[in-house]
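Here is one chain, start to finish.
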Amino acid sequence: MNAQSRRFGKTLLHAAAAAIAASLLLLAGCGGRRITDTPRTASEQLLISAAVDRAATQLDFSYLAGRKIFIDTSLINRVDKEFLISSLRFWAWQRGCIVVPAMGDSQYVVEVSSGSVGLDRNDYLLGIPAMPLPGNFGGSSLPEAAIYKSVRQTGICRLGFTVYRRESWEYVYSSGPMYGYADQKSSWLFGAGPSIVDNIRPARTGQNTTEIPPAPPPAKHLQPPQPPAHAPPPAAMD
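Its structure:
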């Protein structure tokens, strides 16, 4: 191979390398999207709300059906208090009670007590947990090496109430305490997962996952007139 052929080969090699580099530059790019999370997960809120509903539905409002009642929640200082109040009102209405917004308009006062509204958590790990490194490696740690791992969360609610006559403060009756539970278990096998089993949400169906359909077009009599598809022929000139 003479010198001219070698120079031609090197030139061809450099041209190919330049073409590959240019292609990589054209393919390279970057993009970004801001992703945020809510302060509390949906699962946490569902565990709490399901436990509250399951406790509230057991409370006995039957004696108060057809009577004006005021639900006094002044003694409750729990997480998701607003939902708890809403659930109590809902089940009281479902049992035929007349729930009034002001105590002065009621015949009976339902004083609600809540012994618990919260979550319990249990973790299980089969393998080696994450461990901090001593000495000069302070601040670093060995990662977790799990064969099997599970996290179980249980929402627990304890509710009861006492009923008294508003005018005389005479005791009438009590209901509860009633307990409500909701569970979720997440598990990983050799790092794959999580596999989630719970009793706080229905299975996904076409009805609860289908996108909202577009609004239907307005009625024909509300639509603006449309121009004809073809312009009429010009009028004959006199």
